[in-house]
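Input.
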Amino acid sequence: MTRLATHSFLAFDYGTRRVGVATGNTLTRTAQPLRTVAAVGDARFEAIGRLITEWLPDALVVGVPFHPDGAAHDNTERARRFARQLQGRFKLAVYEVDERYTTTEAHSMGARDIDAASAAIILDQFFAAVNAPEPKSTE
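Output.
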């Protein structure tokens, strides 16, 4: 039997003022909320850089919002730009996940930190969507 490598991830629920962060790995295929980064500009990326240094993820996952009918809106492109910035700054693979209704789900679960809980839901959705421990990029 071949043993597959375990890969770790940080996931992000992007917002213009706050970014929720969660962690998880392919061994357990579950996510846990970490924290919300309430910063903008370089301060945001410095805080994310510290989390990347601490957690040493193999790749990153970013939730990309869409309207209920699947159409893109202003935040769709903002989240995609954020994903490209993460990839460029940290030189890690970045995967995108449709994040419709994650905030609603986090609220319904009674989460204290809605943004971090939403990031965990995004990462759980990513794990559910991939069929192998080494997922293919959605870029």
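The beta strands are 8-13, 19-25, 31-37, 59-64, 93-98.
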